[in-house]
Design goal:
The structure holds three protein chains of three kinds. Chain A folds into two domains: 76 residues, Ubiquitin-like (UB roll); 71 residues, DNA polymerase, domain 1 (Orthogonal Bundle). Helix content of chain A is 33%, strand content 15%. In chain A, strands 2-1-5-3-4 form a five-stranded mixed sheet, sandwiched between helices. In chain C, a hairpin with a 4-residue loop joins strand 6 and strand 7. The longest helix of chain C is centred in the last third of the chain and has 25 residues. Classes of the chains: A alpha+beta, B alpha+beta, C alpha+beta. At the A-B interface, helix 1, helix 2, helix 3, helix 4 and helix 5 of A face helix 1 and helix 16 of B.
Amino acid sequence: MTLHAISLTVNGTERQARVMPRLLLADLLREDFGLTGTHLGCEHGACGACTVLIDGEPARSCLLFAVQADGCRVETVEGLAGSGPDSALHPLQEAFRARHALQCGFCTPGMLMTLAAYLRENPSPAEADIRVALSGNLCRCTGYQNIVLAALDAAAALRGAGASR
Amino acid sequence: MKFVGDRHLRKEDPRLLTGRGRYVGDIALPGMLHAALLRSPHAHARIRVVDGARAREHPGVVDVVSFADLGGAGRPLPIVPPHPELRGRNFCALAGDRTRFVGEAVAVVVADSRYAAEDARELIDVDYEPLPSAQTLAAGAAAVHQELPDNLAGRVTLSSGDVEAALAASPRVARLQLRIGRGGGQPMETRGLVADWNAALGQLTVWASSQVPHQIRQFIGELLDLTPHQVRVIAPDVGGGFGAKLIVYPEDVLIPFLARRLARPVRWLEDRLEHMLAATQEREQEHEVTIGFDDGGRLLAFRDRFVHDTGAYTPRGLVVPLLTASMLTGPYRIPAVESSFESRYTHRVPVTPYRGAGQPQAVFVIERVLDLVARETGRDPAAVRLANLVCPEDMPWDVGLSNYRGSGNVVLDSGDLPSVLRRALESAGYEALRAEAAAARARGRLVGVGVACYVELTGVGPFESARVRVDAAGRIAVFTGATTQGQGIETTFAQVAADELGVTPADVSVIAGDTAGIEHGVGSFASRAAVVGGTAVALAAGDVRTKALMLAAQALGVAETEIQQTGLTFADGRRPEKRVSFAELARQAGAATAALGVDPGLESTRFFQPTDIAYSSGAHVALVEVDPLSARVRILGYWISHDSGRLINPMVVEGQIQGGVALGIGSALLEEIVYDEAGQPLAGSYMDYLLPTADDVPAMVIEHLETLSPLNPLGIKGVGESGALPVPAVLASAIDDALGPDGGRVTRMPLGPARLLDLLPPPG
Amino acid sequence: MRGRSSVRPAPFEYFAPRTVDEALDLLARHGSEAKPLAGGQSLVPMMNMRLARPAVVVDLNRVAALSVMRADAGGLRLGALVRQQALERDARVAAGAPLLAEAAPLIGHLQTRTRGTVGGSLVHADPAAELPACMIALDAGFHLRSARVSRTCRAEEFFQGLLATALGPDELLVEVEVPAAAPRTGHGFAEVARRHGDFALVGAGAVLSLDEAGRCRQVRLVIFGAGDVAHLVRAAAALVGEPPAPGRLAEVGRAAAAEIDACDDLHATAAYRRHVAAGLAAQALIRARARAEAAP
């Protein structure tokens, strides 16, 4: 079986790999690159836990082959905070903590990445909009209420900061 | 108390928010192999031959194992707890001569990658002889276990008073048939294990995504013939449990067996489709209820006969139907009660508790009964409930039925049930809500209000453990047999310990679910962690502080009453420059001589063995609208009042309630495991098994009351399952109201739009 | 599923052509062993579950020519690889095919639409999917190409059965053409699903044009989610030449329900689908008429 050489940026860092075509992007990130923050909850595209950003857009990494990410800019939860040991958490991460928007933490990376992209495009969402935007991210622990509140808080913080994070 | 009661932000969060959690799937050991399980495609079949020859040839494959290779490890797993009426049967690490449900594990392949293991799995040849299967709870179905031709796993009757006489004497009598369907806990992280056999040490280390690592250690010890010292089981970060990770499964024995056999680490990660086939499920019951009541809406007699589907095996014995049977009267005073059940085997996934554990069924039954009584007597549903609730002056209230453990009767220890209900009604603005709904109905909308009350069994024994230790560097560690799957005990137990020790939660590290940290433990399920584990932590931490004070007094040469503690330091209150730290005291204790008069170490191990079950209570009010065309249900408002005694961390408690309600919404409106006549599960993936999304769960208003439990020093009651208990009942109540007098009545959960459409009143 | 669970695909060879011709060449060479990969939102789950096991995957995502969208007086041309997300966001779709803009947000979830494509959904032809129904309602033309042949197929001929289309094994759907709407044309769309983003239990899409006198000049009504294929409702033809009064529209809705081939499944009964179809059809027609009246 032919291996394909790929080159991609992951959280700002250039990475290379030689991959078999059927290697899922999620497995490349988790097993080959040791970025285990992206989680696999269903492996058939229904739960959203594996959501990462591909060229800025949220996508399910269980439904992408690693080979398709050649030349792409991939962002995972590990890159959400600034880099460096004392780096500040992203406003979403701060808000999630303050609002108790996570319990077991398994769906959380997917939630964060989906919201990070969503809030870039929709800086002033209403609660109902957020609920619809998150309808592809399943959570079994929280009942979503605190996640929605955290998203609203983060949206406000991002608007206040005027930042494009 | 400084920290107990505080909305303390969680210590777990920084790592979980930045992708640095360590779940079982994140653990990779050098030389690690990957296992894939081959599962039966038949609901019932004889297994004639399992031939792994082709699979073994596949590149990357190290081994293929079937029952014949297991030896002693192939014995049935123990059943916990026992019961005199139980005719129990449990699974083995792999199916032997027969498979009894679609999804039962038949063989396992171990390879150098997940991909290779899945490829090779397709090459395992199994010769099955398919047999008829039992897919009904009625008599005459095929026998699941040959020696039990009637498929009866157990039959129990609980009663109090003379229900026949009471029914005969009742002014009014009514009957109800109710059905509840199957579902599952469905944590976002499926199950999984990493097992590592260290031959030099003769020790097995197992990381398991489990709620019960101590129990896994015990079962591994028995089945793999290893002493407790040789087995360490660790529950790392666990991505949700909800009961799906409550029992010891075949894989929990099989994967460690493979690690030892192959002398290499082995990892198995359950995939979601597999989880739908193999993780235990619950809820399915059929109830026939007869009640007697008076014109005032007071319940006089209650009889319920139900059949419980226990699936193919009984790893948890009769626990679920016993919970249902014993909790059927809920928070109400009913003078004569009889609840009886038959638990029947079927060729389906085994049934063990998931969030709620038999109680949602009981709440559904009794709450449907009360709504019926309200209708029949023309009274308001909330008023009927108030008329029947156990009052504070009745407490402790002996329900008259034996509890599920058989350790005594169900005794409601404390609580103010009428206040709990009234608080929910006030919070919802109940009178105005009823008026608003009626006005909407007058304009042709199907809007309704529902109410439901419950008591919840929490804090069950046998015990939980805690070891609190200050080490020579002054670090404070709390080890406990309680485990965490998201309920935040790293934080809440640190709050408890901090208060007892006079330090802050940041000073305390909680290490849960590691059998090397503490020798005896039980685990987290049945809303017990905070009650039983939290109490053990308080006791052990209290011991440590007592000892520290004594040591400090000796060290500083003053009386204990003169000691002033500031965080990690103990000083002479009159001459504060004379002080000693926790670290120094620990060092002293580490070298304790006879003269010091204490055992070595600044630590304490304590167990809390609750003398009885603590009952939480609550009431939910819901406002719903049913779309007249699609029969889809929209929850417009949801109000909760809740009493679980003292709250260690109200933020965590609210999160538990919100999550429980969401799961309850799933089991009421969306989630159902359905089997066809051949025993094939039809909802095999998340395309068909529908979990609630952010769009399906409303915002909720939660009010707390705190009536302290007399059963433990902190007065805590459990809350983990509370949210889930009354949801199907309150939604049924609201939907009935929305459909009005010309609509049908809800007698069945879950209730999808197609079934609900049949209940809609005729138009116009 | 019959006891099988698999979440990693079987092995395959992978090609990522840069041009349509290259892609077609690969399909011609590998025939039924090859599967084109577009958004992957339907194909990859099936591959993960090993329900689809192509020996060769031809990734179309690098064929820039397939992602082109063009709008002109003749209508809107959507390359097969135009993302579903573009249907919600692009002003040309809002102007030239507002039915698509309205239906698109209901296709799966955010993550589905960033990758999922117009062509991919159409070729997968799930009977409960929104886009096939919309394209039939819009009377879209599908441009199909193989290495040897170029042809056009009308949407309603393209969908032939359950997950079955007129597409040959060596053919690609390269472009979809939505004809420009006549003056005084409006659209309506309504669907019912168990949860937001799920496949529809049943849905309706309508495109209706009025003449200067306010009578219905043309109408296309499609019901989807019932039966194997989205259904173009014959009874709608009875509206032509009349002013579309609410009572008539409701009648057509009921007739539509009688025409469809509904069945029972895990999520709904045939009776449910018929009942809801009637109501949704009426709703779609009413909205289409209202928009047609307001349209220039």
